[in-house]
Amino acid sequence: VILTEVVLHTIKMKLIAPFTTSFGTALEKHVCLVEAVDESGVSGWGETVTSDEPYYNEETTYTATYMLKDFLIPKVMHKTIQHPLEVHDMLTFVRRNQIAKSAIETAIWDAFAKKNNIALSELIGGTKTEIEVGKSIGIQSSPVKLVEKVAEYVDEGFRKIKVKIAPGADLDYIDAVRKEFPDIPLMADANSAYTLNDINHLKKLDQYNLMMIEQPLAHDDIIDHATLQEQLQTPVCLDESIHSLEDARKALQLGSCRIINIKIGRVGGIGESVRIHDLCKDNGVPVWCGGMLETGIGRAHNIALTSLSNFTIPGDTAPSSHYWTEDIIQPEVTMDHGIIQVQTGPGIGFAVDREKLDRVTIRKERIST
Ligand code: OSB
Ligand code: MG
User: Fold this and answer.
1) Residues 94 and 157 in one domain
2) Phi (first) and psi of residue 169, to 5 degrees
3) Does the pLDDT of residue 355 top 90, yes or no?
4) Closest CA to ligand 1's atom 12
5) Which of 163, 185, 265, 292 is the most buried (most CB within 10 A)?
6) Is the link from the previous residue into 54 a cis peptide, with omega within 30 of 0?
7) Which numbered ligand comes closest to the C-alpha of 138?
């Protein structure tokens, strides 16, 4: 493909319910949708899966948009791109800013797949036709409230329940859920809320037969996580600490985790996600696809990625209705008994609903030079 124009649609969407983690509460989201237009007129779509504040990682929707406009888009515009796998290396001249990079990289994957009339999942070598889905639940006001939520989502058919934890909202909450649901696939995500000083506290989680504990220690750490993993029976899963194939290789070598959460945005795109998937597969380490409260566009990328064979653990790929009163894609992502069908249409397999898009758009910019 050769990009002749990129349109940046900045949108604002209200979440159907506030989402609370150890680092804060999200009520609404600004997202920069990247529409990459090829010389033949095909549009590929990507999104910045950033949060509005730099609390999960260093990026925000604003900084990602700035990186895209001033550095990343000019680098790929009007260049002949033989295959989207080339895009990752074209963008390494900018340090970090993985989510910004991924927004344009994923748009190019979609454009390339559409141009070649192939589904994104097939293009990357995905083999599954349907995927199992988990639900990520934010921190609730009490253990009783959390148990109510879990019951609702178990009834809806979710194949994994992930509970956000933080100091002061951990053991009581997990204990209450386990008492009510002794057998469900259950895990906890701490979003970096603990340190090695909490090791005895964290060990108490071992009694609950959790599938894993996600990112218990610092967002930039793989050393202390190795120490922790040695002393915990519960598998450690890394999210925030893994930004690249190299990070994944080092974490596996050190024994910092036994599972990796792959987020396309966090690792700079689909190409790097596939490479991390393959590395983990070769090492017998299972992976799953994390979520960033995406719109349908990011969600579609996540579903396609999850069709790869080593995504053996249900991901945070809940359907559109769990985030938005109205998603911007047609049809919306739906789930049946915890299963989502992998799209078979060209590219991401969903159409962007231009009318709905315009209703939530707060800024639109065309870049063609
Ligand atoms: O740590 O996985 C996380 C949302 C925003 C930032 C970080 C995380 C999350 C989630 C939500 O857990 C997952 C979802 O999209 O449902
Ligand atoms: Mg996480």
Assistant:
1) no
2) -140, 60
3) yes
4) 136
5) 265
6) no
7) 1
